[in-house]
Amino acid sequence: MQRLKLLMIKNVFLIKFSEIYPIGRFKYAPGTIASLFTCITFFYLNTYFQIEIIILIFFIIFFISLLSIHSYLKLYGNKDHQSIVIDEFLGQYIALLSIPLFELDSNFINISIIFLLFRFFDISKVGLKSVEKLPGAFGVLFDDIIGGIYTIPVIYLLFLWFGKI
Question: pTM of this prediction?
Answer without folding.
Answer: 0.91
